[in-house]
Structures are given as structure tokens and as C-alpha cells.
Amino acid sequence: MTSRHRRLESGQRAFLRRVLSEGATRLDVSLIGESVFGWHDRTIGSAALRAGGGRFWLRATAEHRDWACGDTWTGNHDANRITGVPRPEVMARAEWDESPVVMYAELMTYVSDAPCSSTPELTEWVTLPSRWWIELRQALDTLAVQPTNRGCRDPRSFVRRVEDYYGRRLRPHMPALRTEHTDLHWANLTQPGLWLLDWEYWGAAPAGYGAALLYCHSLLVPDMAARVHEVFADLLDTPTGRVAQLSAAAHILDRAERLGDYRDLRIPVREHAVRILSTAGGEPC
Questions:
Q1: For the sheet containing 90-98, what is the strand order?
Q2: pLDDT band at 280; cut points 50, 70, 90
Q3: pTM (2 decimals)?
Q4: Keywords assigned by UniProt (predicted)?
Q5: How many whole angstroms separate alpha carbon 229 and alpha carbon 211?
Q6: Of 75, 46, 74, 73, which Cα lies nearest the Cα of 58?
Q7: pLDDT of residue 1
Q8: What CATH class is the domain 114-280?
Q9: Axis crossing angle, helix 209-216 with helix 130-144, rounded to the nearest 10
């Protein structure tokens, strides 16, 4: 990384700190502890206290006004309608603009349990009790039946994206869609208590897409990947599940190619995609 890139990153972080501070003022809370920056410094968060008592999490971000819209912009707030899934609730939200940039801050449930990993991909074994896995399966099954208009409702589009990315036609199959957490990885799951974090990305997707993402993010630890597969085999080992896995793998590989993410994970994910393609049939496009 060049010194110029370092200066730009530092400027982005300073800007996000200012946004977070403004959000704290607007929502009448006091920031405490260290700030935490999200993926590629897109977001910032910090623990916060209300004058009347209570600890919360304040999360803030900013976008150009042309992008400050759509499912991602309202994902955490929209998730408040989900019931029966362990997730932070948005207690209050403030949105303001400094043209051409729009900003928001969300005051959320404070989660004291730690993320399973500091990175989306797992790099070492994490000991999780059987109860944790049962609760994860129950959470995703409960989420699956939640009604939503978020996400793409056309199953053909998922097939086309997979075929276009890999340059292959799959055997004819129309994947079943259900409501999924479409950013399910190890940094968005906590332990010892289970919480599902970061609901910017959720909505309709091929059944098992969340499990497929988690499986792909586990491939650097084969025993953990095997455990994920064991818990979700009935979803993953189906025609829809294979589309979900190919779509999840394409998501990871695309970020690796475009943004340099997943330097160690890209090879096992690509190998996994090749194995699925060899069983999914189809011809080169």
C-alpha cells in the first residue's frame, strides 16, 4: 500500500469518526471505548451510553446521495420486523446530509458476546457447543419463513448470475427462494451466546445461501467446514443448495479479484466451485 493510500484511509477514518460523533449528538448518547471500523472502512461503531442509563451500540456510515437508498441502506432497520432470531434491534436512527453525502447513525442493542472471528473467513478452529449449532440452525430456519420484499424475487436471475460468472450453463433447475442472511460469515456470528450481526444484507435468496456462505468462509479450517456441512447438509446437498454454494463462492471470488480480499481463501473456494460445477452438469457458455 502506498503512502498516498495510507493518507486516504486515514482521511476516511477521520471522516467516519466525525460522522459517529455527530450521530451520538443527534441521538443523545455518549460514546465510550474504542471505535471499530467495518469492511474497507465503510462503517464505524462504538459502545454508547444514554443519560438515563443503559449501554448500546452506535453504528454510522455515509454514502453519496446516489447510493444512499435501497435495501442495503435500510437493512438493519428493516430487520426490526424479524421475530424469533437473535439479532440486535435498532432502537433509534438519525439521518442527515452534507450534500452530496448522506449519513446515518443507528442506536442498536449492545452485544457483549464476541465475534467468532475477527475476519469473515475462519482461520483457526473455534470450539462451539452443540447447543450453539442447534440455535444457529433454528435461527436460519426461523428467518427462512419471514415474509419480505427485500432482495431479488426472480430465481432465474440467480442462475443467470452463476452461469455468467463461471461461463457455464447449469442443468435446468429453478432454485427455491426463501429469506436469508446474505452476509453470514464468522465475523457476523458471536459466541458463546449466539447473535447474528450486520443485517444490511438480507432478503430473498436461494434456500441455504446463508449456510453456503458460512461453509465457504470455513474452508481454511476443514474440520469446521465439515461441521457446517453436517448441520446444513439437507440444504446444501440439493440442486438449489448447489446454486447457493456457487453463488456464495462467486461472491467471494469476485471480491478477491476486484478488491484483493480473501488472499488465502480464494484458492480453496475456487476448488470447491470447480467440484460443484463438475457435478452440476451443463456446458460452457
A1: 29-37, 43-50, 55-64, 101-109, 90-98
A2: confident
A3: 0.93
A4: Transferase
A5: 8
A6: 46
A7: 38
A8: alpha beta
A9: 140
